[in-house]
């Protein structure tokens, strides 16, 4: 699994509260990605990073921000959580040589 | 809208039969990948095929790519119960670091 760990794995929060999900990798991959997975939608790209302090928007970036201050960590922040952000969030890192994505086990977020 | 769309959305077959899933996409790609997801787990990479390749094999998996039709297929031969999972295609477009997934095909292998 290329050492991708996500934290927390489960979180319940209330509407309007800030939430930060953390993704940590141990393989020094340059590219990292955040996806959300919802029934009927598959995986949708939120934001991605192509290096330290280098990030870009994905398909569904509204309401989310990201930061990458170190190669190994990619943070996803919901500044003010809404019920529509209830989802399972997956982080992935890409092997630049093979193109393969390595995924974490997911973070299940419930916004009440 | 999403780049890739898998077809069918769900597929049930008897153990030992072959399973075929298709993926169609909208714009030119650099490569196309297939992933498997077991229930409640992260996705696992199966195979990558580049835009200049037409067919690729890995064990019981066979992937084809038709860039003129903007489509790919994943064939799993001699299916097993352990193949029960969701399968996703993911595309990487030219000069773009985004990797976009489709909605997936749920495969159920019947004993």
Question: What's a concise summary of this model?
Answer:
The complex is a heterodimer of chains A (112) and B (111). With 112 residues, chain A is an all-beta fold.
Query: What is the CATH T-level topology of chain A?
Result: Immunoglobulin-like
The level of helicity of chain B is under 10%
How far apart lie the N and C ends of chain B? 37 Å
Largest interface: A-B, 28 and 22 residues
Oligomer designation:
heterodimer
Helicity level of chain A: under 10%
Low-confidence stretches of chain A: none
Number of domains of chain B: 1
Name of the CATH architecture of chain A? Sandwich
Topology of chain B as a string of helices (H) and strands (E)? EEEEEEEEEEE
CATH architecture of chain B: Sandwich
**What's the structural domain tally of chain A?**
1
Could you walk me through the main structural features you see in this protein, from its secondary elements to its overall organization?
The complex is a heterodimer of chains A (112) and B (111). With 112 residues, chain A is mainly beta. Chain A has a single domain (4-111), classed as Immunoglobulins (Immunoglobulin-like, Sandwich). Chain A is built from no helices and eleven strands. In chain A, strands 2, 4, 5, 6, 9, 10 and 11 form a seven-stranded mixed beta sheet that branches. A four-stranded antiparallel beta sheet of chain A has the order 1-3-8-7, with no helix packed on it. In chain A, a hairpin with a 6-residue loop joins strand 9 and strand 10 (101-103). Chain A starts with a strand and ends with a strand. Chain B has 111 residues and is mostly beta strands. Chain B has one domain (4-110): Sandwich (Immunoglobulin-like), CATH 2.60.40. Chain B has strands at residues 4-7, 10-14, 19-25, 29-37, 43-50, 55-58, 61-66, 71-76, 85-93, 99-101, 105-110. In chain B, strands 2, 4, 5, 9, 10 and 11 form a six-stranded mixed beta sheet that branches. Chain B has a five-stranded antiparallel beta sheet with strand order 1-3-8-7-6, with no helix packed on it. In chain B, strand 9 (85-93) and strand 10 form a beta hairpin. Chain B is globular. Chain B starts with a strand and ends with a strand. At the A-B interface, strand 4, strand 5, strand 9 and strand 10 of A face strand 4, strand 5, strand 9 and strand 10 of B.
């Amino acid at each position: 699994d290329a050492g991708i760990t996500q934290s927390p794995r489960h979180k319940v929060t209330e509407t309007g509260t800030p939430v930060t999900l953390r993704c940590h990798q141990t393989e020094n991959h340059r590219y990292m990605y955040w996806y959300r997975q919802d029934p009927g939608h598959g995986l949708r790209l939120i934001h991605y990073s192509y290096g330290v302090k280098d990030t870009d928007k994905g398909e569904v970036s509204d309401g989310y921000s990201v930061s990458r201050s170190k190669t190994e960590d990619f943070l996803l922040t919901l500044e003010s959580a809404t019920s529509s952000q209830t989802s399972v969030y997956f982080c992935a890192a890409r092997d630049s040589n093979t193109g393969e994505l390595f995924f974490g086990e997911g973070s299940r977020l419930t916004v009440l | 809208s999403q780049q890739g769309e898998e077809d069918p959305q769900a597929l049930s077959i008897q153990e030992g039969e072959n399973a075929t899933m298709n993926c169609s996409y909208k714009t030119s790609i650099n490569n196309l990948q297939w992933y498997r997801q077991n229930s409640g787990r992260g996705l696992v990479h199966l195979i990558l095929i580049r835009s200049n390749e037409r067919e690729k094999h890995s064990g019981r998996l066979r992937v084809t790519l038709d860039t003129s039709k903007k489509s790919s297929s994943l064939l799993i031969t001699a299916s097993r119960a352990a193949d029960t999972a969701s399968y996703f295609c993911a595309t990487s477009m030219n000069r773009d670091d985004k990797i976009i997934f489709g909605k997936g095909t749920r495969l159920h292998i019947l004993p």
